[in-house]
Amino acid sequence: MFALFGNIDNPLPQVGPGYGSVQTGLPALIGNLIGLIITIGGIGLLVNGLLAGLNFITASGDPKKIEQAWSKIYISILGLVIIVAAFLITGIAGRLLFGSYSAFLTPKLFGPGDL
Question: Which stretches are transmembrane (predicted)?
């Protein structure tokens, strides 16, 4: 049935196989997901910090609004510290356990042929 449509050749053969094999597929996907989570967290912190600054500017001297704005600023700074600390702790743990700072960020899977 698929012969009706003919052969479809890869238009980009120099790009590579992508997530095709066990050695490159799942570890690369996990590394990309970790990077995506860190990026989303950073963007969220940036947006929260900007909104806190906007709330601070528009508080008009109201102590309650100023306190809420400072609370958001403190939470943004705490979130940034947590993200950076998690990144550093995983790097140090990867270096101590596996000899590479990026061991947790770019994991490697070993199969029966690799032992």
Answer: 29-52, 73-98
